[in-house]
Amino acid sequence: MSKKDSKTTNLVNEELRQQIDELTEALQRERADVINVRRRHDEQIASLKNHVKTDVIEDLLPIIDNFERALGHVPKDLEGNDFVKGVQAVVKQFETTLGNIGVQRIKTVGEHFNPQLHEAVSMEEGDGADEIVDEELQAGYQLGDTVIRHAMVRVKRQ
User: Fold this and answer.
1) Which of the residues 57, 100, 139, 142 has the least number of beta carbons within 10 Å of its own beta carbon?
2) Separation of alpha carbons 153 and 155, rounded Å
3) What tens digit of pLDDT does each residue of 51-100 get?
């Protein structure tokens, strides 16, 4: 093989190595793009699932509110009644199901007032500077960090 043929072969080999390097880099970028697209897709699906859950739960909360109101007005002579026990079991099952899908009831009575979780309906003045939830008027719920419905509360300074 002549020097000219050897130089030509080396140039061709160098060009081929450069093309291989460029194609390898392009392939790596494409793979990274695909991974990012999958990750964004998974995040969007999770967000959509949470949004749908939140919408359904918002529609169901008035039902549990009405069950709880009804149980709050059961006459003394019917407290041990099987029908009342059945309604109590339905409320407990509803709360368990909400818990199983990650929905939690917002803590209220005795907690420090938190405007991100609580909606104050009234404020009772007291001696101290601490604003403490004194009474829950309507339960609040959250799914993870997302508040589905703020708890309606009365607050007292202590």
Assistant:
1) 100
2) 6
3) 999 999 999 999 999 999 999 999 999 888 999 999 999 999 999 999 99
**64, 92 contact by CB (below 8 A):** no
In the block, residue with structure tokens 């995040």: 43
Nearest to 83 by CA among 73, 94, 74, 92: 74
What architecture is the 103-158 domain classified under in CATH?
Roll (2.30)
Q: Is 69 helix (H, G, I), strand (E, B) or coil?
A: helix
Its pTM stands at 0.72
- Helix boundaries (H) for 73-143: 82-100
d(C-alpha 62, C-alpha 80), whole Å: 25
Q: The tokens of 156 are what?
A: 């007292």
Cβ distance 139 to 65 under 8 Å?
Answer: yes
Whether 142 and 117 have beta carbons less than 8 Å apart is answered as yes
* Element (DSSP H or E) covering residue 132: strand 131-138
Q: Return the pLDDT at 9.
A: 84
Residue of 106, 111, 107 whose CA lies nearest to 131: 111
Q: What share of the chain is helix, strand, coil (3-state, %, to 5)?
A: 60, 20, 20
CB 153 within 8 A of CB 137: yes
Angle at 76 between CA 73 and CA 97, to 5 degrees: 50
